[in-house]
Amino acid sequence: MLFTSQSIFFAISALFSTLQAQPHGHIHHHGTSKRATGVVSGRGVVYADGNSGMAALGGKVSWSTDWTPWEDNPTNADLGNFAPQAWGLNNADGDPQKQFLTAFLNASSTFPEGATVLGFNEPEQVTQSWMTPQAAVDNWGGINDLKAQGHKICTPCPSNGNNNGTSGTGTVTLQYQSGIDQGTAWMSEFLAAAKGQYTFDCICGHWYGGQDNDLAADQSMIASQMGEMAALASEYGIEEIVIAEMQRVNGDQECEFVAWFQDTFLTDPQYAESGNKISAYSYNYDKFTLTSGDSLTTVGSAYIGEGSC
């Protein structure tokens, strides 16, 4: 989800591309959750199985997700409504722990009515779910069928990483190409290929700030990306934008960015064609900026609306 006109701002490194949004590589153990599953809105958190210290966020966010169809919350904190995700396609080698789509569809009978379902994770990234737009459409039928159960269906969730000309991100052809806005290109081709077959309740994407960006550069970057997302949403009659992962990679002024994002970008009329279209967003807890030990950081306090920078 990068934009050529703003390419100076898209300095996401390959390192962060490989660290974010990784699938779980182990057997899941799923207990009965005390939390509801339903439509997501407002601030949320995305976390990896095994994250600790999330109790500080208990009752402070309205939704959560963890890259799986199951709620693997290790601290059993109240993290609001859970959004299941179909992380990717089945692994061709038949590894039962990598049959992502089959596992998701098998688990879907346990989703309460009204869940917001997130599509494939960063499909334009070779280190993530890595598939062409047409392959995603060709394998979308089972996910689309969940509409009949009353679920809200989001598109796949491409990243805003452009790999900085270094290595290994996917493209719409599964061949490395430098200098293109890969997330946006992927989403545009996916929606075009899906037209006439499938409709979507929300358009999904990820946003990570540039490692070397200052605050103004990251503000400009996310406004540009969400403007492109909003344009695609309008073109295809999609009502909402969901940011399923976000974080400002450059920790300097991260609190100020969080405050601006929530207090200005989501509501100010100057962002009517970008930020105002976002119905739900989820900060990446796995980057360890919201809590320290069992306590909220300054960033975390600002994020949940109980503190200032």
Q: Which spans have pLDDT < 50 for at least 5 consecutive residues? A: 1-20, 24-35, 163-180
Q: In which range does the helix fraction lie? A: 10-25%
Largest sheet at a glance? Answer: 6 strands, parallel
Summarize the helix and strand pattern as letters: HEEEHEHHEHEHEHEEEH
Please state the structural category.
Answer: alpha/beta
Q: Which descriptor suits the 3D outline?
A: globular
Topology (elements, then pairings):
Elements: H1 14-19, E1 42-46, E2 63-65, E3 81-82, H2 100-107, E4 116-117, H3 133-138, H4 141-144, E5 152-153, H5 182-194, E6 202-208, H6 215-235, E7 240-247, H7 254-265, E8 278-284, E9 291-292, E10 295-296, H8 298-304
Parallel strand pairs: 1-2, 1-8, 2-3, 4-5, 6-7, 7-8
Antiparallel strand pairs: 9-10
Helix pairs in contact: 5-6, 6-7, 7-8
Question: What's the quick description here?
Answer:
InterPro entries: ASL1 (IPR053183), Asl1_glyco_hydro_catalytic (IPR024655), GH (IPR017853). The protein has 309 residues and is an alpha/beta fold.
Descriptive key words:
disordered N terminus; signal; six-stranded parallel beta sheet; 10 strands; globular; 309 residues; Asl1-like glycosyl hydrolase catalytic domain-containing protein; Asl1_glyco_hydro_catalytic; 8 helices; alpha/beta; two-stranded parallel sheet; ASL1; single chain
Could you please describe the fold and organization of this structure?
The structure is a single chain. The protein has 309 residues and is an alpha/beta fold. Helices cover 25% and strands 13% of the residues. It is built from eight helices and ten strands. The protein has helices at residues 14-19, 100-107, 133-138, 141-144, 182-194, 215-235, 254-265, 298-304, and strands at residues 42-46, 63-65, 81-82, 116-117, 152-153, 202-208, 240-247, 278-284, 291-292, 295-296. The strands form three sheets. Strands 3-2-1-8-7-6 form a six-stranded parallel sheet, covered by helices on one side. Strands 4-5 form a two-stranded parallel ribbon. A two-stranded antiparallel ribbon has the order 9-10. Helix 7 (254-265) packs parallel to helix 8 (298-304). The longest helix has 21 residues, at 215-235. Residues 1-20, 24-35 and 163-180 have low confidence and may be disordered.
